[in-house]
Amino acid sequence: MSWRRFFSRRHADAELAEEMESYVAEEAAENRQRGMTAEEAQRLARIKLGNAGKVRERLWRQNSIPWLDGAARDLRYAARTLLRTPGFTLIAIGVMALCIGATTSLFTVVRSVLLRPLPFRDPGRLVMLYEHFRDPSMNSQDFNYNSVAPADFYDWQSETHGFAGMAAWRYAQFNLTGAHGELPEAMSARAATWNLFSILGVKPVIGRTFTESEDRPDGAVAMLTWSLFERRFAGNPSIVGRQIHLDGKLYTVVGVLPKWFTWPDAKVQIWVPFKLGMPPEILKHHDYHFSFVAARLRPGVSLASALSEVSALQFRLHTANEPAPVAEDVVSRTLIQDLSHTVRKPLILLFCAAACMLLIGCLNVANLLVARAAARQNEVAIREALGAGRLALIRQQMAESLLLCAAGGAAGVGLSVAATQWLTHAWKGLPTAQGIHVDGVVLAFACGLAVLAALLAGLLPALTSTRRKSIPILHASARSGAGRPMHATLRKTLLTVEIAATVVLLIGAGLLLKSFWRLRTASLGCTTRNVLTMGYSLPAKQYDQPAKVNAFNEALLERVKAMPGVQAAALTTVVPGAGAMEDNIFTIVEHPPTSTSAALPDALFRMVSPDYFKALYIPLVQGRFFTKNDRAGQPRTVIISRDLARQYFPGENPLGQHMHVGPYEHADFEIVGVVGDTLYQVGEPARPAMYFPVLNGDDDMGYTLVVRAAANPLALSVPIQKEIAEQDPQLPVTDVLTMQQIVGGSLDNQQLSATLVLAFAILSLVLAAVGLYGVISYLTTQRMAEIGIRMALGAQREEVLRLMLMDGLRPALLGLGFGLAASVLAVRLIRFMLSGVRTLDPAVFAAVACTLLAVSALACLVPAWRAARIDPMRALRAE
Q1: pLDDT of 401-430, one tens digit each?
Q2: Which of 470, 476, 481, 710 could form an SS bridge with 381, CB 3.0 to 4.6 Å?
Q3: Which of 187-191, 423-427, 459-463 has the lowest mean pLDDT?
Q4: What is the mean pLDDT of residues 58-81?
């Protein structure tokens, strides 16, 4: 076979025709030389050549691939057929573009975030290790994975052998100031042990990583991330070896990390040694949990074996340190699981919702193709009568479905690029967001989706439309009103499935939206209206004494309170709704533990200024608030929350009793007040809390300034920052947010998930309504003669209207019933995203049922009304 002839068919055919004509001309010339007349010579030459058509056909077959040639012919025919009905074609392509585009976009994100390995050396052998308490009350809300105490980490590192190496990191923050008048900037940072980057297999692009000798409390080296290197230092390699000012102290830059390295958070700007600034005694405590441990498995060692060795050691540490909160077990998860654990289930939910919408879209296109097949049944019958086999007829109709889905897939890929970019920007804290993009795998997935959609949408209509023999169809076509009941039954069946899937999506969206609204309107236990917050951290080098810290804080509060529009101002370490942050164990002096092995109680740890509770309208239940006398050098006092009082002082007055608290275990704190409970996070129950005077002068966590304004609180942000700059020009502020923004920010991703599922559900409802409208319109056309006869025999228009409405609402009611039954099972899969809402919420189920019935009735009403307006004489004459 000549491939040149196969791919240049017209040119090759023209060459062949010219060659044959040349042969005939030469043969005729020889015949004339033998004395024949011109006509006789030409006739004998053509007889010798034989049937020219058969010769060309035989050579054509020799230079073609039969199945490929047939497929090309089917595609050309399908394209011409589709172009003759542009309305149908554009609707079908649009439906498939939306469905394939949404599914491809979600696949792009799911693959990048949940499936693609991190770009580390041999990432399959990297895991994160966490402590796990057997007592459920001691575990965090984060899947029972707890941060590690440094002392535990160092014991794991030195006394176990299943891992080739272990490294730890912790959170840190610095104020970066410039030597040449650059603006100060608060930097999110991480402090890591010197071997972290070698365990991960990450090498700096400039300079080096830390050495073991540099990992010490008085260390003064730092590494820059690529984003800070480019943004702040203009990508100048000479920064390596130079010094920068962090919290007023000089640090030598030893290296710059690669651009792709954004682990564990893209917000991280600086890395410093793990022990930097930490008192040595902290590293010896087994009950201060703030480290995160990464480990690399040894070759040939299973994770279960290595983990069991570390767990056995951890249980010995737990036993040796009772009753301190030292966990009994150790658990692990891979690095990609660790990064994506908060978004895994929401992303899978969205992907399933998009796939459900794709199924609905395929059913909708299948319904359109069934209607198209019904309109073309005579054409199909004629082709079969002329000798076309059933396989050839099916292939021709599948070619139309393939072209529609291929065009929809191509348009869907373009939509998915834009949708993916939007989703990565809209989803807060999406891991590895900078690496999410459309690549060859995504394009292959889109192609596979298009082929699958073509099979789902086209195969059933093609099989059913070629099922019957041609002669009965041609006989039946003699009557214009005769239709094929099979087509109507198939369309109703497809529509029932489509409506059932839509009901599942609508109920899921309704539950998610109701849950989001419950969270959005939930009370934190304090006011959130017109409240501005901003954070700052005082450098330890400059503010090295409690008196200096207190002087700055008191002066700032006085300045802010005197500003116009400020109703109240206070300081705290964490505001309600911003997260749990620090918690600590405590004991009650008057009620010592009855057992040395009993776990000590735990409560949230907060530091606040005297006006904090008044500023946020947190009610006083008993006792008093703090005053200016509750400060360093004075008797130690503490205020507890109502929940803590209820749990640990049942039936007694807590005022005047004393507590020992983790960081101050050698001091007694007298309980002077009980205040109302506040939520540390929206959607989570209140936890016991302890409040200590901020004027103790401690600055372990930084401060949050809380300002209640008379009107728009954001209008005060710049004036307050100027007041801070007047006190300390080198002190930057962070997270300038209103309380309502804090609450809303914690719910942004839940709102996004609920909104996207609702959008998919609404699109599916529109598709179902269009499909229902099409079915009733088709039935009206099919039953026109029957309706004419009914009306001629005396049927009233209202009866015809009711008949057609019931004919259309029947598949809607069946779909609603199946959908409600399927939803009972499906909603169990999303219960992890619901808060304050029952999975079988009757209000949501009733609202979805009413909405679907209303939309279905509207979709049926227009064609049913048209049927009731039919002129019976015209219908009978047409018959």
Answers
A1: 888 899 999 999 999 999 999 998 888 888
A2: 470
A3: 459-463
A4: 68
List residues bridging with 148 in a β-sheet. Answer: 291
Query: Could you give the C-alpha distances from 247 to 571, 670, 700, 840, in angstroms and in order?
Result: 21, 34, 14, 54
Could you tell me the pTM of the whole model? Answer: 0.81
Q: Tell me: the pLDDT tens digits for 713-732?
A: 999 999 999 999 899 888 88
Would you state the pLDDT for residue 689? 94
Cβ pair 357, 764 in contact under 8 A: yes
Per the CB < 8 A criterion, the answer to whether 182 and 254 are in contact is no
| Closest to 708 measured CA to CA, from 615, 638, 779, 780 | 615
| Distance, first Cα to last Cα, the chain | 55
The two beta strands, 163-177 and 185-192, are antiparallel
Compute how many other C-beta atoms are within 10 angstroms of the C-beta atom of residue 199. Answer: 20
Give residue 231's Cα distance to chain centre.
29
d(CA 602, CA 586): 6
Report which of 700, 703, 745, 735 is spatially closest to residue 171, judged by C-alpha positions: 700
- In this predicted model, which residue has the larger pLDDT, 284 or 153? 153
Tell me how far apart the alpha carbons of residues 117 and 655 are, in angstroms, rounded to a whole number: 55
Question: What is the C-alpha to C-alpha distance for residues 591 and 652, in angstroms, rounded to an integer?
Answer: 12
Q: Residue 299 above 50 pLDDT?
A: yes
Candidates 794, 797, 814, 817; CA nearest to 864 is 797
The amino acid occupying position 318 is H
Looking at residues 619-629, what average pLDDT do you find? 93
pLDDT recorded at residue 555? 93
Q: What rounded mean pLDDT belongs to the chain?
A: 83
Quote the CA–CA distance of 325 and 331 in Å, as a whole number. 17
Residue with tokens 């203009």: 234
Element (H, E) at 876: helix 872-878
Q: What is the DSSP string of 483-542?
A: --HHHHHHHHHHHHHHHHHHHHHHHHHHHHHHHHHHHHT---SS--TTEEEEEE---TTT
Output Rg (C-alpha) for the chain, integer angstroms. Answer: 38
Query: How far is CA 64 from its chain centroid?
Result: 49
E-assigned strands of 304-375?
A: 329-334
Residues 691, 695, 698, 701, Cα dihedral to 10°: 60
Which pairing describes strands 249-256 and 243-246: parallel, antiparallel, or unpaired?
antiparallel
Rounded-to-integer distance, Cα 2 and Cα 9, Å:
10
pLDDT digits (tens, 9 = 90+) for 467-479: 655 555 555 554 4
Please give the residue that has the higher pLDDT: either 598 or 803: 803
